[in-house]
Amino acid sequence: VTEAGGTDTFTVVLDAEPAGDVVIRASSNDAGEAQVGGPLTFTDSNWDTPQAFTITGVDDSIADGDQQATFTVEVKDGESHDAYDDVADQSVTATNADDETAGFQLAATQVQSVTEAGSTTNFSARLTTEPAGDVVLRASSGDPGEATVGAPLTFTSSNWDTYQWFTVTGVDDDLDDGDQVTAFTVEVKDGESHDAYDGVADMNWNVTTTDDDTVGFTLSTTSVSVAETGSTATFTVVLDTEPEGDVVIRASSSDSGEAQVGGPLTFTSSNWDTPQVFTITGIDDSIADGEQQAVFTVEVLDASSHDAYDGVADQSVTAAVADDETPGIAVTQGRSYPANTVAEYGST
User: Fold this and answer.
1) HSE (CB half, 13 Å, CA atoms) of 322?
2) How many Cβ atoms are within 10 Å of 147's Cβ, its own excluded?
3) Is residue 4 pLDDT above 60, yes or no?
4) Rounded CA gap, 275 and 247, in Å?
5) Quick check: bond before 50 cis, omega within 30?
6) pLDDT above 80 (res 12)
7) How far apart are CA 300 and CA 286, in angstroms?
8) Percent of the chain scored above 70 by pLDDT?
């Protein structure tokens, strides 16, 4: 039978003609699942004509799966000939097909986003039908490095249709990875839930984690001093956030005849927060040009770096280069005799 009110029948007939009326009744052990019609009376004229009991499925609001009801078929002694008093009972089992579909639904009343600063948001769950036993829903994060979720929710036959809340918390990282969407899988915890819910499909719920990291790099100074004698000075570079791939930083001199700098520096996800050093060296020349300045452009080498760093602005360090030449003139004696004399007739 079915909970939609579907029916089925079985028949009863006596094995021998009775000396008096015999009343047969059937009773259900679970009238909430299936019920049966009234007693049947057999006489000495109809004893060998089968009579029918009709079983009717009974609807409920519980997702309890297909249920069985056992019908005890027995002689009603007080209304039957005494010869039938000791006739053994018999039984008929009816399966009542459930018409409730076990399941759950998700909903939200808040913006489904969190921040890396640890803010929270909520989404809710409820069952779609009353369970015949407890049902436990749990949620798991597809990326716990971006967002985590709270403990499982338990639904019973008394609170199944009341929304309960999962709390999602944003998780901080050092990556400038942009806003990230985390999928939370909500599922029935089979080992702690009524069997009717074992086959219920999982559902997903998305929450966005707003990134609070900005790509960039920091210099330890923007000015240094060196000399043409070959002295050196240093400055350091460090990334502001952890990169998702290598980042190469190079420095180039605006006047390599005055000062030069060493090769590029490579940062990875493991050394991004460790300052690395550029060394500037003064270059000698033979020109009395006074103190000069060389400007070093510090930039991301885009072709060798993660794409997230392509738009990072260049920075600069200015090196003051001290001159080691002294301005002046040199005077030498001529070849005239006596030395340094001339005559009125125009000698030189």
Assistant:
1) 10
2) 25
3) yes
4) 13
5) no
6) yes
7) 34
8) 94
Average pLDDT score, the chain: 92
pTM above 0.70, yes or no: no
Q: Which domains does the chain have, with CATH numbers?
A: 7-96 (2.60.40), 104-210 (2.60.40.10), 217-322 (2.60.40.10)
What CA–CA distance (Å, rounded) separates 262 from 253? 10
CA atoms within 13 A on the CB side of 256: 4
- 47-64: buried (b, 16+ CB within 10 Å) or exposed (e) per residue? eeeeeebebbbbebebbb
User: What distance in Å separates the CA atoms of residue 237 and residue 299, rounded to the nearest whole number?
Assistant: 11
pLDDT, tens digit (0-9, with 9 covering 90-100), for 284-320: 888 887 889 999 999 999 999 999 899 999 999 999 9
CB proximity list for 55: less than 8 A, separation 6 or greater? 1, 7, 8, 9, 10, 34, 35, 36, 69, 71, 92, 94
Beta bridge partners of 253: 296
Q: Residue 22: CA atoms inside 13 Å, Cβ hemisphere, count?
A: 26
DSSP secondary structure letter of residue 202:
P
Q: Which of 296, 325, 309 is nearest to 219 (CA)?
A: 296
Q: Where are the alpha helices (DSSP H) in the chain?
A: none
Cβ neighbors of 279 (< 8 A, separation 6 or more) are 232, 233, 234, 261, 262
Instruction: Quote the percentage of the chain above a pLDDT of 90.
Output: 79
CB 314 within 8 A of CB 298: yes
Task: Convert the pLDDT of each residue in 77-102 to its tens digit.
Answer: 999 999 999 999 999 999 998 888 89
